[in-house]
Amino acid sequence: MTQPMPPISFEFFPPKTDEQRATLEKTVAALQPRRPQYVSMTFGAGGSTLSYTLEAVRELHLRHGLDAAPHLSCMGGSRAEIRELIETYRALGVKRIVALRGDLPSGMASFGDLRYASDLVEFIRTESGDHFHIEVACYPEVHPQAADAQADLIHFKRKIDAGANGAITQYFYNPDGYFRFVEAAQRLGVDAPIVPGIMPISNFSQLRRFSELCGAEIPRWLAKRLASYGDDVEAIRDFSTDVVAQLCRTLLERGAPGLHFYTLNRARPTLSVLDRLGAID
Ligand code: FAD
Description:
The chain has one domain (8-277): TIM Barrel (Alpha-Beta Barrel), CATH 3.20.20. The chain contains ten helices and nine strands. The protein has helices at residues 18-31, 50-63, 79-92, 117-128, 149-161, 175-187, 204-214, 220-228, 233-253, 268-279; strands at residues 8-12, 38-41, 68-73, 96-100, 133-138, 166-169, 194-195, 197-198, 259-262. Strand 5 (133-138), helix 5 (149-161) and strand 6 form a beta-alpha-beta unit. Helix 3 (79-92) packs across helix 4 and helix 9 crosses helix 10 (268-279). The chain is globular and about 50 Å long. The chain starts with 7 loop residues before the first strand and ends with a helix. Flavin-adenine dinucleotide is lined by residues 42-45, 71, 73, 98, 100-103, 116-118, 137, 143, 145-146, 151-152, 155, 159, 168, 170, 197.
């Protein structure tokens, strides 16, 4: 890359066991030297992993000195619970939140007091003014529950209008879809940065499962090539590092404002992409 690297951020999930804590510790140690603008920590809907998210954010923020952004989903929560959590994060010195609706876990019947992520953004602003920098999610390949692409886009704009500062996309492997989405959002008047979410590939069957759940498309050519490597882990790694580094390069060359990496708490896939990206001229 000839131009300087724009801001990058890393997403983690909260560890629940000592083994997972040790893994995250190593991952953070390996990724921190890449100087992320911030790191984020996911949140399980329905409060099940709430304390894990808080505990992990506390570690990243206080012990590692990272700008740590908890994900906060409103699904299943009451206003009082969400208010308390916002206050806890504020008291901890957290300055960023990734505000989401979340998904209803199977067996849970109630949505909670706030229905959509736009309601959550509005609530955070009402409760804490401009204290938090708020990111929201968006979907260049359309959220799976949206009636259609235009309705989804309008709902995305509502989150920005409610006070979000920026957005992170669902991951994708087709940069054209991202740029079309950004242009359509800008035509609607969205001028907040829309940062592409990048999913490095290390395990094809896991990626296929995730993608079916969240509605992200794996292009046919990519699926066919990945499948053709069978169990050859090294070949998959090498090929997919190339593919994802090229994707990042295209995104940055065409004006993406940063890159947000879904690390899945592993350093190597993300580091390989960053190293390969740095080596592309
Ligand atoms: P919303 O923006 O509320 O949209 C949800 C659906 O409702 C969309 O189809 C939208 O078009 C529609 N909609 C919105 N407003 C209205 C309205 N007023 N009327 C009718 N329809 C409407 N999930 C977790 O559980 N924990 C996490 O930590 C987490 N992190 C994520 C991080 C990123 C960057 C991304 C992209 C997703 C993440 N998710 C996470 C997944 C996310 O919670 C799901 O995709 C969820 O289904 C939608 O969340 P949202 O915030 O986009 O919802």
